[in-house]
Fold this sequence. Notes:
Layout: E1 2-5, E2 8-11, E3 14-18, H1 20-24, H2 33-44, E4 48-51, E5 72-74, E6 79-82, E7 87-91, H3 96-109, E8 114-119, E9 122-127, H4 133-146, E10 150-152, E11 165-173, H5 175-185, E12 191-197, E13 205-211, H6 216-226, E14 231-236, H7 242-246, E15 250-254, H8 259-264, E16 267-269, H9 276-284
Parallel strand pairs: 3-4, 3-14, 9-10, 14-15, 15-16
Antiparallel strand pairs: 1-2, 5-6, 6-7, 8-9, 8-11, 11-13, 12-13
Helix pairs in contact: 2-9
Amino acid sequence: xxxxxxxxxxxxxxxxxxxxxGTLLGKNATLSExxxxxxxxxxxxxxxxxxxxxxxxxxxxxxxxxxITIPAVMLNGVCVYDIRATVFDKTEELGKDIITELLxxxxxxxxxxxxxxxxDNHLNVYYENVTAPHVIAFMKERIEKFGKTFTRAYPxxxxxxxxxxxxxxxxxxxxxxxxxxxxxxxxxxxxxxxFYRDVxxxxxxxxxxxxxxxxxxxxxxxxxxxxAFERVVAFGDNLNDLPLxxxxxxxxxxxxxxxxxxxxxxxxxxxxxxxxVAEWLSENxxxxx
Length: 289
């Protein structure tokens, strides 16, 4: 299927999807001027491009200079978010039965994690206690850089979440702290866990809890069906990108990617700090027209 807009031939067959951290973003989680220039030139010439990330919509300021029009996959597939309209296109709820079972365990272990709730098309983030320096630094950065708001809800089990859609829980800690938590919750029916190392601090790991229906795999397939894409080309680096690869027809891992991600890729490209995604697109985009 093809459209013509102001004389530009637009290919609607292929969707290009990139992860952010460790893939499209370079040092200090920033997007280089080179990547911005190349990707925008290709989008303006007809490329269908979007992102699939563990980040929330609040972090989209990082890519505000990209001319993305295709909704983005956020929170590892919990939601599909329309960047231009600033609305949630689709959200997978973390069931109330799951939350009822999960919250007492979080409280017992006194974890410095964050619970994401959606209400009236707005994302609300709650926490019980924050004591770890890296978590305090995370909150400070999000508040100062993105204007993010965090609300203390101590304890979770007593807080009134009426009218809110539970969507996502994330905690970042050392492996020895998260592993016992993972063992306690991994068998909860309807729950899916993303467990992977932080790309910026190798001493820390992320454990992200979401609905079993929420994944980059399902979210990309939703976009594929909604917009009649016939083919998906994906870029990734970490274990949470494996579901993205599973939904794609051609997969590219950056040089700095996890070995398992590389093993699933059709091609290894330059690292995130070398503008690997943008350079590959510049040289190979026309192959998929």
